[in-house]
Amino acid sequence: MTVTQARDAEIQAAIDAYLKARAALRVVGEKYPARMGGNDNLIGRIGEFIALRYFEGQGRSPRKVGGGHNSTNPGFDLEEGNARIQVKVITHENKRGSSTRLKAPWTEFLLIELGSDYRQSRIGHLWEEDHAKARKKDKRLTEFPTARRSMLGENGLIARYGKVTHAEESP
Question: What is the pLDDT of residues 11-65, one digit of tens each?
Fold first, then answer.
């Protein structure tokens, strides 16, 4: 085998493994829609699963909106009683460090950062009432902020007004 053939075989093997993993996630999502179902955004599905486990570790029992089938809700991903929880994920691949803007209605926001190993490195949890207090203190803050990795940093919105949990502290 030539160097070029070996290189291309290695690339093809990585592609095949990636596609196999995506297919496996879809199968698991169909089998357990309330835990892993959702739209085509597999990173989003993974984030919602991490969020479910995060809240369950706190003794809570949220559920995916729409039972976890191929549906989306513009303002929140999980619900529990009156809690409407919006989940956003930012991976290490995201060089800008930003995701999408939060949308109404939400009462809790969970921002999950996935590190270079694709495992959670930090989780930020912000409650709507604390966000409102932050907006009163800092008029530059918007009602519907864009999810940013910087929110998890020492002076970030979530670090200052919510709670940031590092991977080693997570259940």
Answer: 999 999 999 999 999 999 999 999 998 877 899 999 999 999 999 999 999 999 8
Instruction: Identify which of 152, 154, 109, 145 has the alpha carbon closest to the alpha carbon of residue 128.
Output: 109
Distance from C-alpha of 43 to C-alpha of 50, rounded to nearest angstrom: 10
Cα–Cα nearest to 89, from 97, 39, 143? 97
CA angle 116, 117, 120 (to 5 degrees): 90
Question: CB neighbours of 92 closer than 8 A, spacing ≥ 6?
Answer: 113, 114, 115, 116, 118
Cis ω for the linkage preceding 145 (within 30 of 0) = no
- What is the rounded end-to-end Cα distance, in angstroms, of the chain? 48
Contacts of 171 (CB under 8 A, 6+ apart): 53, 54, 56, 57, 58
Residue 54: strand, helix, or coil: helix
Return the SS3 of 113: strand
pTM of the model as a whole:
0.89
Please state at what angle helix 42-56 crosses helix 3-31, rounded to 10 degrees.
Answer: 50
